[in-house]
Fold this sequence. Notes:
The complex is a heterodimer. By secondary structure, chain A is of the alpha/beta class. In chain A, about 35% of the residues lie in helices and about 20% in strands. In chain A, strand 10 (about 270-275), helix 10 (about 280-290) and strand 11 form a beta-alpha-beta unit. In chain A, helix 1 (about 15-25) packs parallel to helix 7 and helix 10 (about 280-290) packs across helix 13. Chain B is α/β, with parallel strands linked by helices. Chain B has helices at about 15-30, 80-85, 105-110, 120-130, 135-145, 150-160, 165-180, and strands spanning about 5-10, 35-40, 50-55, 70-75, 95-100, 115-120, 180-184. The model of chain B has no long low-confidence stretch (mean pLDDT about 95).
Amino acid sequence: xxxxxxxxxxxxxxxxxxxxxxxxxxxADVDVVAAYPITPQTTVMExxxxxxxxxxxDAELIHVESEHSALSAVVGASAAGARVFTATSSQGLxxxxxxxxxxxxxxxxxxxxxxxxxxxxxxxxxxxxSDLMNTRDTxxxxxxxxxxxxxxxxxxxxxxxxxxxxxxxxxxxxxxGFAMSHTYEPVYIAKSxxxxxxxxxxxxxxxxxxxxxVTMGTITPPEWYYELKYQQVxxxxxxxxxxxxxxxxxxxxxxxxxxxxxxxxxxxAEIGFLVYGGVYGTLVEAIDTMRSKGFRxxxxxxxxxxxxxxxxxVEKTRNLEKxxxxxxxxxxxxxxxxxxxxxxxxxxxxxxxxxxIASVIAGIGQRTITExxxxxLAEVYMRKGRDSPLYRESIYxxxxxxxxx
Amino acid sequence: MxxxxxxxxxGRGGQGAVTAATVLAxxxxxEGLYAQAFPEFGAERRGAPVKAYNRVGNSPIRTRAxxxxxxxxxxxxxxxxxxxxxxxxxxDGYLIVNTGLAPEEFKxxxxxxxxxxxxxxxxxALDILGVPIVxxxxxxxxxxxxxxxxxxxxxxxxxxxFGGHIGEKNVEAIRRAFxxxxxx
Lengths: 405, 184
């Protein structure tokens, strides 16, 4: 029998994912926020500045002239020991790129929200994951949420993961620009922040302090640089364990459970989809429709992108005959052009009983993805065996001029 | 899956279609229902055609796909071409329009076969608010026709969103349209 867990008292509000971020930042007792507005991130900062102006939140909001400066400002504040937050999208994240490496290299627990958006040129303000996927090798722990509720929960969790003394790496929380950032839906938030703040204790770490001077990020010769980079490798690998531990503690605190890879109707599924972000909800409803017609299909969602949860992924998808990985970003020039699909194939390389893995590119620049797209994709791959070229390279679903048969 | 109603709002930038959808979702959440409100995301600007969507139901709403077969279409501005707002509306669905015409007249003018509800939201907005922001009047008409949420919850949501004098004026617009809307 299910045991009713004691959880923090919460209130239910209709919030967009961007607003959910702001409430989480408030409840996490952040000290310094710096950001530069960009669609679709802007309403995160609007809500935070409103909260600060209303006296609901006691934080320093630094107005800057670019995203490069926004991240630089929070890097500086974090180095001085502050709990910091920023948010951006698309070109803003690109402009931050240099400082992304500096935040992780300095081992600063910066937390950033990224409502994801396509990249220029041509200009698209709409959603895909090209911006977030470009940060893959920056040594940021990266989580991708699929509901506004999860956005609130994950931003809170992110501070605990980032500040864990075993990790001390920045954490990025991605979610669909517009399709989540601007969609209002029910979200439970803590009625009062005390228990959230107990969950996020202020931990001591090396910081800039005139009374105890240290130097950070100094020039490091070949004799030492590699060891420092290897420490990031170790911390990032350790983060998998810490994320899982924190998921469990978060579940005890808020009553909602998360895992690096989540599944739906996967136990007896022959064909499974793997997606990330808000499109998982659309997929789940498509699975319901297909199941009602007797098709053995299931869904999986990647919630943790870096570190990549190899064992969780394999354990939860290995019984499938076919695994269709739907990416919303393109690695141009790669035959398998979906960043997550590449990772999944690599995860399975040493497994004897790997499913057939297909890479599908979809939703680029917010090209609409409906339940019908998943039904049609399942129908296509149901008929295709190992010898089909549709497994050898990514297929580009929903683009004019390309017909997938 | 429990029962679910899907609503598509059509207006022009500045008329408040997105706000109306948001207020409706807030009211539904207040009532303990599940709800979603989202705009058709464009480069928003005054006067340009705008779409917004609502899903309201008694079980969790997972999909984020745009609504293709709405139960209800709400048209804030009948200068929009019907080709824009009619597609996909269910045969037994409702078209709720801002017009000075009687619903029968509007129906025969368009030559359509769905249920039509008509209210002169522009007149209500000008009388009460002094500006042609018709969203709350159209929301009042929607509540009368669909009973998707209670009038009281929407009024609470409006007061929370706008507050004070502006909130009260908007509540008045909702109530007047609720009482005046005609249906065939």
